[in-house]
Automatic annotation (TrEMBL):
<dbReference type="GO" id="GO:0016491">
    <property type="term" value="F:oxidoreductase activity"/>
</dbReference>
<dbReference type="Pfam" id="PF13450">
    <property type="entry name" value="NAD_binding_8"/>
</dbReference>
<protein>
    <submittedName>
        <fullName>FAD-dependent oxidoreductase</fullName>
    </submittedName>
</protein>
<feature type="domain" description="Amine oxidase">
    <location>
        <begin position="102"/>
        <end position="319"/>
    </location>
</feature>
<dbReference type="InterPro" id="IPR036188">
    <property type="entry name" value="FAD/NAD-bd_sf"/>
</dbReference>
<dbReference type="InterPro" id="IPR002937">
    <property type="entry name" value="Amino_oxidase"/>
</dbReference>
<dbReference type="Pfam" id="PF01593">
    <property type="entry name" value="Amino_oxidase"/>
</dbReference>
Length: 325
């Protein structure tokens, strides 16, 4: 990418960064979004291998708050998500939504119209006078008055440390408290229907070694039978650095009793920051004097809704600081 400037630079194009960017851009604020991966979405992403289509990370989401429910209703009307299934709980029926046609394509739709740069790894953030200078791998530089970091806390800290920026003690201590859980994932193509019951989501008792299984064909996103299998955190912690052949076999063996088909192709993936274990609380953190905001799933809630609401709340705060409200 080329050097450029903006009112606000957002690091991370997961659901938090995209929601913040959309809210800011709607007011005419000049926003640039930098994402180190080749695609947007973070843990909301999709993979394809031949005819098999897998939602790799987040499988679904709920809308419990009025603000996020309004967003989801708009997405349903636009055709980028639909209700997948419902569950009864102590507080009534909860609707679980999925992306259309996939979770990955849903977030790609949310990114449309944004000044977004994928494959842009921010290596350092330097504060000089009243501006932030972001160093992007490949010798590009982005200059912005305001910086929003939405990556996992450990990665956000590393970006600031590399630029020599001393976070205020309260913010630094809060960021250091955030812990993350690892997950190992197997993507398995089958030679026939899996045999899992509709709607295609299975959560075996005990959550170890398998936390859940999703049937992407029953879900309605894959034309051929294929499964996304996520490990439990204890299994992932034990096997994370082991060869894929070792732990993928364990997960497949744990799932086979539920299947009526054989596995014909396997792919594996490691999630170092699958979801946060201990959060900060609140909606975001801000060093307003330095025009620096932190948002993401470390706040509010670790689910999609919490990440989205954190991005929206950070955008509200930034607009207030910019005098745009």
């Amino acid at each position: 990418m080329k050097d450029r400037g903006a009112d606000v630079a957002i690091v991370g194009a997961g659901i938090t960064g995209l929601m913040a960017a959309r809210a800011l851009a709607r007011t005419g604020t000049e926003v640039v979004v930098l994402e180190k991966s080749p695609v947007v979405g973070g843990r909301v992403t999709t993979r394809r291998f031949g005819d098999a289509v897998f939602d790799l990370g987040v499988q679904n989401f709920t809308a419990r708050s009025d603000r996020f429910r309004a967003c989801v209703e708009d997405w349903v009307a636009t055709g980028i998500c639909v209700p997948w299934y419902t569950r009864e709980g102590s507080s009534g029926e909860t609707v679980y939504y999925r992306g259309v046609p996939t979770m990955g394509e849903m977030v790609s739709h949310l990114a449309e119209g944004l000044d977004l740069h994928c494959g842009a790894l921010v290596t350092a953030a330097v504060r000089e006078e009243k501006d932030w200078f972001l160093q992007v791998e490949g010798d590009a530089e982005v200059r912005a008055r305001t910086l929003v970091l939405t990556a996992p806390a450990v990665q956000s800290r590393a970006i600031l440390d590399a630029g020599g920026y001393p976070c205020p003690p309260g913010i630094s201590q809060a960021l250091h408290r955030v812990g993350y859980v690892r997950t190992l994932t197997v993507l398995a193509q089958l030679d026939g229907p899996s045999g899992l019951p509709a709607p295609g989501i299975l959560e075996p008792a005990g959550a170890e070694p398998v936390a859940w299984v999703a049937d992407n064909q029953l879900k309605g996103i894959s034309p051929v039978p294929c499964l996304t299998i996520h490990s439990g955190p204890e299994f992932a912690q034990r096997f994370f650095d082991e060869p894929e052949e070792r732990w993928s076999g364990h997960l497949l063996n744990a799932v086979r009793p539920y299947l009526r088909a054989d596995v014909v192709q396997v792919h594996a993936h490691r999630w170092r920051y699958a979801f946060r274990e201990e959060g900060i609380g609140g909606q975001y953190l801000a060093d307003s004097q330095a025009r620096l905001w932190f948002a993401g799933d470390a706040f509010i809630d670790k689910r999609v809704e919490g990440a989205a609401l954190s991005g929206l709340a950070a955008a509200d705060s930034i607009l207030s600081a910019l005098g745009a409200r």
